[in-house]
Each structure stands twice: as C-alpha cells, then as structure tokens.
Design goal:
The chain is α+β, with helices and mostly antiparallel strands. Helix content is 60%, strand content 11%. The strands form 2 sheets. It has a 5-stranded mixed beta sheet with strand order 2-4-5-7-6. Strands 1-3 form a two-stranded antiparallel sheet. It binds adenosine-5'-diphosphate (ADP).
Length: 410
C-alpha cells in the first residue's frame, strides 16, 4: 500500500528534511534513558551517519509501497552494521532493542508535533496510517540489527566454547602424565614399606589420586567427544566385535570383582560409530562391574542385540545392586551419583560422569538410552540406535576392525 495522502507525503518530506536533527534528538534521548556513553555508542563518523541515514530512508520508504523498507538492501546493510557495532561494543540485546524502541518513540513524537503545527489537522485515519508505517519500518530495521547482533553473538559463543573444549582436551591430557607419576611413586612407597600410620595416609592419597585419574579420563573423553560432535564415523561390523573390545579393556577389573561379562558368539551386524559405541559399552560394563552385588555367588553383565528395519536395540543387563528409585531420574546428569560414598554395600568410587558420556554418545549417534532397575536385583540399560545403511561403504567396511581410540576411558 502506498500512502498517498497529503499528510503522508508531508511527513515523508519532513522526515527527510529533519533526519539529522531527529538523529540528534534520538541520541539525546538515548543518553537520558540508557546508561550509555556517547563516544562508546558511535565511535566513528561513518557509524554516526548511520542513524540519520536510517531516518531519511524511513521517510523515503513512506512514499513507496509497504514492503519497500524490507527490500532496500543498502539500509538493511546499515542496520546490520549497527548490529555488528553494538556486538563489538558488548551491548546487551535488551539495550539494542531499547535503542530502536526509543527511535520509534522519537519519530512518533515528531509526527505528533507536526500535526499540532498544522492549522488544518489531517483525519485520524491518516495519522494512524503514518504512525503504523513508521513502526513497521523501525521494526524491520530493528529485526535486521538484532539478527546481525545475535548471529555474531552465537558465533562468539561457539568460538569460546571451542576454545574451552580445546583447553579441556589439552589440560586433561597434560594432567595424566603427572598423575601417572604420582600413582607410580605411591606404588613404590608401598613396596618399600612404611609405618602403619603412614599406610593409612597412603591409602587416602591413593584413593584421591585414583579419583583424580578417573575424573581426568572422563573429562578427556567428554572433551574429545565434543570436539568431534559433527563427525559420526560409521562402520559396519558385528555388534559382538565392539562389545568384546570394550570387555577386553575391563578384563582385570571384572576378574577382581568376580563379574562375568557375557557376550553371545553370534550378534547382529550393525552400521555404527564404533568409537562412540565402544565408549558407551565401556562405561556401561564398567558400571555393572563397579556396582556388582558382592553378596551374590554369580555376578554377571550380559549384552544382547537385535535389529529390525528401523532400529538396532542393544541391551546391557546386570544382576548388581540396582539403582535407588529416588536416583533414577538424575543419573544421566553430569557429576550426579546414585550411590553415595558411605552407603554399604555401594561404597564404590566414582565421579558421576560415566552415564553422561553414555548419553552424549548415544545422542551423537541419534539414538536414545533407557534404563530399568530394581534395587537388589539388577539394572538393564537399553540403547536404541537408528539403523544406518550406507550401501556404498558397507562391503568395504565389514571386514574392518573397531577403532580403539577411546580404549583407556572407562
Ligand atoms: P559414577 O559411576 O561415577 O557414579 P555414572 O554417571 O557412571 O557415575 O553413574 C551414575 C550413577 O548411576 C552411579 O553413581 C550409580 O548410582 C548409578 N549406576 C549406574 N550404572 C549402574 C549399575 N549398572 N548398577 C547400579 N547403579 C548404577
């Protein structure tokens, strides 16, 4: 719709003529209403020119069809530049929106003043039309500014996240070596023989170091997973191959706790991100071993798998101590434990990260994980993964071995 009223034309012309003065008025109002410093808002002349230009174009667009402002690429570019500037100045989104709100207020006030100056006031319908066109133009410009602002903001957050992940990867990697040296030194001290009192202190230090080692390994696994979030590498192979590799890494611990890891000879062939599935099974098996019920003569964790046209279902069931009902809803959260330190028979060390790693892995594989548990009877985790068939690569990959890049994480 084109505003063809005499009043519309008048306001369009006046906005054009007064754009510098209106920009100055907006600027004053900004300084009154917001905690901003002038030199921080518009540090350069080019940018100081932007607001008058926006106002001039708002005026010009009123002589054109309704969508004109949204199609005016040069004015939209200026609005984007303002978004980039406000982002660079670390303004808040709220502040940017308020600035446009104030601009809208200044322009509407201007229209009111123009009406009051006229000896022959325009009909109310013409005033409403003009004001609604001003609001529309300001909305389009503010949306464009905000889009630029938010997109840069998102980019900054993702850069910072990436840097943080890099730092975590590097730091956790670096911690492992001194921790290993401390563990070794503690072993040597124990062999050399120390007094009873010193042995008790040694026990405490050893437990603390073991805790730090577990924490470091899990944080490292999380950092590595996050770093490869978009790269799900699929291979086709029998489920049992991946499960046996995870079980192999836990053989000593399983023997120590007397837990039998049962994996059928024949398992379905699946197309899967082997690294992530292995890390998932490693964490599930290691939990079944940690939370085994030592009062039961036969202790086991058993894996079964099946596939149909749409999904692959992997079940990991144990006859351990089970998970307290009150804890079931939170066990997948980071640093959350279901069994607390002193609770016999569940006084098992842990850092509360294993299942969050499982959840991350399964989500990255676009699947889900479910759990059922009865205290005193045991726990069953079910992984439901989408079936992924990559016919081009299937044959070549069916003979390949599982990747073992995560084998040290448990
Ligand atoms: P952590 O084992 O280090 O505490 P996890 O994230 O691996 O951390 O597990 C969270 C909680 O879930 C554990 O503290 C434990 O209470 C419970 N849990 C996980 N797996 C089992 C299991 N197989 N049997 C009993 N409890 C389990």
């Amino acid at each position: 719709m084109i505003i063809s009223t005499a009043f519309g034309d008048l306001i369009a012309g006046r906005l054009h003529a007064e754009h510098e003065a209106l920009a100055a008025r907006w600027f004053e109002r900004l300084l009154d209403l917001l905690p901003v410093e002038a030199r921080h808002v518009f540090p350069s002349h080019t940018l100081l020119d932007h607001v008058p230009a926006l106002i001039r174009d708002i005026g010009d667009s009123m002589r054109q069809a309704e969508g004109a402002i949204a199609a005016n690429t040069s004015i939209l570019d200026k609005a984007r530049e303002l978004g980039a500037l406000r982002h660079q100045q670390r303004a808040s989104l709220h502040q940017v929106l308020r600035e446009y709100q104030i601009l809208g207020g200044v322009l509407v006030q201007f229209v009111v003043e123009e009406v009051e100056r006229l000896t022959d006031p325009p009909p109310a319908s013409a005033c409403v039309l003009v004001v609604s066109r001003i609001h529309h133009a300001v909305d389009v410009l503010s949306q464009t500014t905000v889009e630029a602002f938010v997109s840069l903001y998102t980019q900054t957050i993702s850069d910072q996240t990436e840097r943080l992940q890099q730092f975590t990867r590097m730091a956790t990697h670096e911690w492992r070596q001194p921790l290993g040296a401390v563990q070794f030194g503690l072993g040597v001290l124990r062999q050399l023989g120390v007094s009873d009192r010193a042995t008790r202190s040694l026990d405490v230090v050893e437990r603390s170091v073991a805790h730090l080692v577990e924490l470091t390994r899990k944080l490292e696994a999380i950092a590595r997973l996050n770093g490869t979030h978009d790269s799900v590498v699929s291979q086709t192979l029998p489920l049992g191959n991946v499960a046996r590799e995870a079980a192999r890494q836990l053989r000593d611990l399983a023997e120590l706790r007397g837990v039998d890891i049962r994996i059928p000879e024949v398992t379905p062939e699946i197309s899967v991100d082997v690294g992530r599935l292995e890390l998932t099974l490693l964490n599930l098996f290691s939990n079944s071993i940690k939370y085994a019920d030592l009062s039961k003569p036969e202790r086991f964790v058993e894996l079964t798998g099946s596939t149909d046209a749409t999904a692959c279902r992997i079940v990991v069931r144990d006859n351990g101590i089970g998970i307290p009902e009150r804890a079931i809803g939170t066990i997948f959260e980071r640093f959350t434990r279901g069994h607390v330190g002193g609770d016999a028979p569940s006084a098992v060390g842990g850092v509360g990260l294993g299942l969050s790693i499982v959840d991350d892995c399964v989500r990255a594989m676009r699947g889900r994980v479910e759990v059922e548990s009865v205290e005193g009877e045991g726990t069953t985790f079910v992984l439901i993964l989408p079936v992924f068939v990559d016919s081009g690569r299937r044959e070549a990959e069916s003979t390949s071995k599982p990747q073992n890049e995560n084998r040290e994480d448990s």
